[in-house]
Amino acid sequence: MNLTFFDQFSSPSLMGIPLILISMTFPALLLPSPDNRWITNRTSTIQLSMINLITKQLMTPLNKKGHKWALILTSLMIFLLLINLLGLLPYTFTPTTQLSMNLALAFPLWLATLLTGLRNQPSASLSHLLPEGTPTLLIPALIMIETTSLLMRPLALGVRLTANLTAGHLLIQLVSTATIALFSTMPAVSLLTLLILLLLTILEVAVAMIQAYVFVLLLSLYLQENI
Amino acid sequence: LPAAVLLKDTKLMDVKLGQLGSWLAMRDFTPSGILGAVRRGYDRYYNKYINVRKGGIGGVSMVLAGYIVLSYMWSYSHI
What we know:
The complex is a heterodimer.
Chain A lengths: L12 E2 L2 E2 L1 H11 L11 H18 L10 H17 L12 H22 L1 H6 L11 H45 L3 H40 L1
Antiparallel strand pairs in A: 1-2
Chain B lengths: L19 H7 L4 H19 L8 H17 L5
GO molecular function (chain B): proton-transporting ATP synthase activity, rotational mechanism
Subcellular location (chain B): Mitochondrion inner membrane
Membrane topology (chain B): Single-pass membrane protein
């Protein structure tokens, strides 16, 4: 009974073919395909307006050199958003619950921001390790602490996304199991649990969107410091 | 008199029953071939239901429903 709750996170495979690839590439089918028309269909218009909104929001705090990152940050945002939201449908598999995938997304991008900063403006990016106005005696300790926090960033990015989504899916499964188990004995309590399930699902939809946003926002923040 | 068409180029509706085996054997089953077939099938669906002037919520919902059914089929053994 205990182990079956985690079965939903095992990578599905059919006759040895990993199906995680299909879960990752399916969102591409839902996105607007380029059309030569001036006015596209309704779905494309809505999606493109959302993408424009996201890109403007992400690129406003960045200077001109940072605008080279527009494509990758926007596509990352759309990717995470769609994958998280699709995972809330019944029986679907969410690739972002796998820590391997989130770390694979977070680590190279964080490293890219760090190396950009170190290469283009080495002294300015190193100076971020020491906040202004610290007492002289504290300087060695503080530099160690800041370096550790800098090195923890990719781990935090990956683990945050994984933990939030995994916890959400697990909670939904637990509460729904409780609802069904209680239905035969105490219907009133079962109704209460159903209400909790409803609220939880709304929360999960919000969390799915927020986590994607936070991931990309933090990356753009690390970029702002370094570019 | 219609010009003779190669078996490779005939559409599925024009293939005779006896030729079905050889027609299937000639299809492209490489990963890029399968991807191309999925893309072509989806393009047909997209242009019929989503890429229309007053498309509603039904076009995208059918895609999502199909995805749910597909995921159910894959995870049936885990349930």
